[in-house]
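Sorry to interrupt, but I need a hand with the structure work. Could you add the entry underneath, on a fresh line?
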Amino acid sequence: MQQTTWDVIIAGGGSAGLSAALMLGRMRRRVLVVDGGAPRNRFAGHMHGVLGRDHTSPLDLLAAGRAELGRYDGVVIRSGEIAEASVIDGDGDGPGGGEGLGGGFAVTLADGERHEARRMLLATGLRDELPDVPGLTEQWGRGAFLCPYCDGWEHRDRRIAVLITNPMYVHATQILRQLSPDVTVFAAGTASGGIELAPEARAGLDARGIAVEERAVEAVVADEQGALRGIRLTDGTVTAADVIFVSATPVPNDALLRTLGAEFATGPDGVDWVQVDAMGRTSVPGLSAAGNLTDGRSSVPYAMSAGSMAGAAINGELVEAEVRAALSNTAPTAA
């Protein structure tokens, strides 16, 4: 199979990508899902706040989604990566062929296969860039987490350490205070530097009894079994902690979006995010994006919803274009 034409190519087989494929498959669209197999939440043993799936494996959810898609014969899921992507000129002769359909997209997979599609959806997610603290990476998804709503309940009434590298994370610290009276903020960062808390932020922490550690962090400390023990400071002191919440920096996997010419804008978090409308449409005609790729705050339910809406919107656009094409083909010609 050297070249195949599809209605839609979806890059990314996480919650957003599979949800979009489900909507499209139910409308008998021919859909290729190309999945690199590295969802953002793969480090977590359990996901939380997902109705009907609370405290279950996120990888089990994706496996169930893949199995469900098996009943739709138009949907094909391939493991791999898209090495190249380009916009096909909308002259009516490409896979989009017909008035109003646009030219579509062409992709080349890492194994050299070429595929074309009338529409394309990117749901390639993001990766979380952790502060450069020795021992922190080993605890990610085990003793260190990002989201209070996702993982806070499991650590209620325990000793919570909050490693802040972004002033916006002060709000998350106040949320964590709802879950435990023992919360300590580490805002000095590492020996190479940290952040300075604004006076009003510091006052809010003090008002709710949240401790602020002024000394810089040297490393995260674990016991012989690898379980989190605490945080070692630059003076050698070890502060005991049962869990760490950390303000990781979201890094969108947006190389394909940039290659295809989508517009970006800097968000309040200082990260450049692709610009999409309520249905996931980017500035490039026929190109959509959904899930963590568009918003670092995206949870599993949000990603599923965004993918579902984007898939439905893509199908709706194709139907409208097909109606226009049919009308054009049946219009009387001039004598």
Observations:
- Residues 92-101 have pLDDT under 50 and may be disordered.
- The domain at 131-247 is CATH 3.50.50.60 (FAD/NAD(P)-binding domain).
- Helices lie at 15-26, 58-69, 136-139, 148-151, 170-177, 199-207, 255-259, 300-330.
- DSSP finds eight helices and 19 strands in the chain.
